[in-house]
Amino acid sequence: MQSSEVPLDILTIGRRVIQANGVAVMAAETALGDVFVQVCRLLVAGSGKALVTGSGTSGAIAIRAAHLLSVSGTPAFYLSPADGLHGGLGVLRPEDSVIAISKGGSSSELNEFCRRARKLANCLIVITATPSSELAELADYVLPLTLPADADLGAIIATGSSLAAAALLDAITDVTRVLRGYSWDQVIYTHPAGAVGRDGIILATKPEEE
After folding, report:
1. Among candidates 45, 70, 73, which has minimal Cα distance to 183?
2. Number of Cα atoms under 13 Å in the Cβ half of residue 187
3. What confidence tens digit (pLDDT) does each residue in 71-124 have?
4. Closest CA to 165 of 144, 148, 139
5. 71 CB contacts (<8 Å, ≥6 apart)?
6. What whole-number distance in Å separates Cα of residue 78 and Cα of residue 113?
7. Which of 69, 94, 108, 203 could cross-link with 76 by S-S, CB 3.0 to 4.6 Å?
8. What is the distance of C-alpha 203 from the center of its chain?
9. How far apart are CA 136 and CA 208, in angstroms?
10. pLDDT at 202 over 70
11. How far is CA 120 from CA 45, 108, 115, 133, in A?
């Protein structure tokens, strides 16, 4: 039978990671400013879709963001840089917007994808912790994340930085939903399954925050 005692170092490591993640998420607020407002208004005013992309962990965040944007009234889809460079770029139209996520902005595959995508789409929006990067230089709009040095495990594994990008995209998701006047009734209509659909009637009766 295992002892109920947990070595202190295990808890210390766990707390340190969770605390670092929390600080990184709060740091996403540094990206809120005039460019953030412009990006939100652009996504609402546009007639096209938002293509969200990223490599590695940023790709996982991009998949999540594309789903949540669509759920909340901004048509969006995910395309990986690799698939894009193997013909997927053909999906883009002049009215579409591209949102690229990259902490360092130095992925050659992502950068080549964005270089070509920018010529096919209306604009390129970049979320990065390195606003001086090659990727940022390609962008029409840069949303910079100012992250603490210990945001990521070993400064290598994209833990806190990816959560910060997700938080910023969540902010974009809800701001665009409110700007569109996209009601909870509309959210529930396109998301009738699962707990969202089951409990939707409760959400639909909640007033919007001012």
Report:
1. 73
2. 27
3. 999 999 999 999 999 999 999 999 999 999 999 999 999 999 999 999 999 999
4. 144
5. 187, 190, 191
6. 13
7. 69
8. 24
9. 35
10. no
11. 18, 19, 9, 22
Tokens of 181: 């006047």
Q: How many residues in total does the chain contain?
A: 210
Identity (one letter) of the amino acid at 198?
Answer: R
User: Tokens standing for 86?
Assistant: 């193997």
Q: Comparing C-alpha atoms, which of 52, 36, 57 is closest to residue 174?
A: 36
List the beta bridge partners of residue 98: 51, 124
| Bridge partners, 127 (sequence order) | 101, 143
pTM: predicted TM-score of the whole model, two decimal places: 0.89
Query: If you write DSSP's letter for every residue of 34-50 in order, what string do you get?
Result: HHHHHHHHHHHH-SS-E
Domains, the chain, with CATH or none? 12-182 (3.40.50.10490)
The per-residue pLDDT for 79 is 98
